[in-house]
Amino acid sequence: TDRTTLADGTVLQAGQYGPAISNQYPLGKYIEDYEYVQGLGHLDQYNGRTCITPEYPAGTYAYFVTIDSNQMPVYPYTVGAQYYGVVNAGNTGPQGGHNTIPGNATTYTPDVANGVQETIITGVLSVYPNPANDKLYITTGNTVPLSDIVLSDITGREVITLTNNATISPVLNVSDLSAGTYLLQAKAGNKTYITRVLVN
Known about the structure:
Strand order of the largest sheet: 6-5-8-9
Helix content: under 10%
Number of strands: 9
Oligomer: single chain
Structural class: mainly beta
Largest sheet: 4 strands, antiparallel
């Protein structure tokens, strides 16, 4: 009912109190309004987990950004009050950011040699209508056919897959999908394009 204690029950000193709960400062507005419960959900206390990604097929530790249906950041955001691992002191404070990269560090280099361009693009990969509720039309605006089209929900689950497509402007039926935000990935020649799709 107030912000004189933390969510885990810690009693605060008067100088540490947060603002009174109100329409301007509703419960849940601040990180301190929450308590981390180990084993609840998929992320650890640092708002991350180890997972396999296309860039790291052997696995890597990754932080995650939490967003709502309007693509706005929500608790627990990223990064929280703690980091995973040990923070190099040279990266903190007024004189931070002057570290020497260790010689044994692995530098991630995108597969530029194969023309991979994974970025959110508008105008190159066009989808319409967006938001969509029935059919979704896709085009690059050129004569290169799109292939290996994948529509994934916000959790990364593939909901529509179209492989070996040979048309320039394929059409996806999204009428059976739940309302929400989806990511569309499509290949055109040797390039990969990603854009956001809203279904209502």
